[in-house]
Amino acid sequence: MKKYIISSIFIMLALFSTANLRAQEIKNSKNNYVVLTKKVPQLQPIILTAEALKAEDGENFGDFQVIICGKEIGDITEADKIGKFIDKAEKAGVNIVACGFSLNKFNVDKKRIPKEIKVVENRILYNFQLQKKGYKSISL
After folding, report:
1. Which of 46, 59, 121, 123 is 20 to 30 A from 18, alpha carbon to alpha carbon?
2. Mean pLDDT confidence for 24-40
3. How buried is residue 97: exposed, middle or buried, by Cβ count under 10 Å (0-12/13-18/19+)?
4. Which sign does the torsion angle of CA 55, 58, 60, 65 carry?
5. 136-139: strand order across its sheet
6. Which CATH architecture fits 30-139?
7. Is 137 exposed, middle or buried (0-12, 13-18, 19+ CB in 10 A)?
8. Residue 29 confidence class, pLDDT cut points 50, 70, 90
9. For the residues 9-34, what does the mean pLDDT come to?
10. What is the DSSP string of 21-83?
11. What number is the average pLDDT over the span 20-40?
């Protein structure tokens, strides 16, 4: 009787462990990326990288996000500095995100932020949340 109970428990544990592994494999079937940058001009090589990864990954290319932060965050409100990157980013499947802490710290008028740019309150927390979802991350 003990052998039967122990065997049953062992089989149940093995089944549940395998199901958990399969769920993780399915969840991470796409390659997702996040880049933190402090300078708008760095969007040029970042977008080129996203395009190359999209071509390389094919159907496995998922989401690509760029988080802008730091003292030059105000550049995202200047059309001559950010405009050309917004169009290129959209075509490449890149989402541009602005850090709310930086916007507040450097007194950037949030009304002047282009509608294509998402604002998150805390870039560090947001980056960690994306990493927990399996995003590959790099900071420039």
Report:
1. 59
2. 81
3. buried
4. positive
5. 118-120, 94-99, 61-68, 31-37, 136-139
6. 3-Layer(aba) Sandwich (3.40)
7. middle
8. confident
9. 62
10. HHHHHHHT-SEEEEEEES-GGGHHHHHHHHHHHHHHHGGGEEEEEEEE-STTGGGGG-HHHHH
11. 75
CB 117 within 8 A of CB 76: yes
Q: What is the 3-state secondary structure (H, E, C) of 91-134?
A: HHCEEEEEEHHHHHHCCCCHHHCCCCCEEECCHHHHHHHHHHCC
End-to-end Cα distance, the chain: 62
* Residue pair 130/36 in contact by the 8 Å Cβ criterion: no
Name the packing angle between helices 79-92 and 43-57 (round to 10°).
0
Q: Are 130 and 32 in contact (CB under 8 A)?
A: yes
- Quickly count: other Cβ atoms within 10 Å of residue 66's Cβ: 24
Sign of the Cα pseudo-torsion (140, 47, 60, 132, in order): positive
Q: Above pLDDT 90, what percent of the chain?
A: 76
CA distance 17 to 60: 26
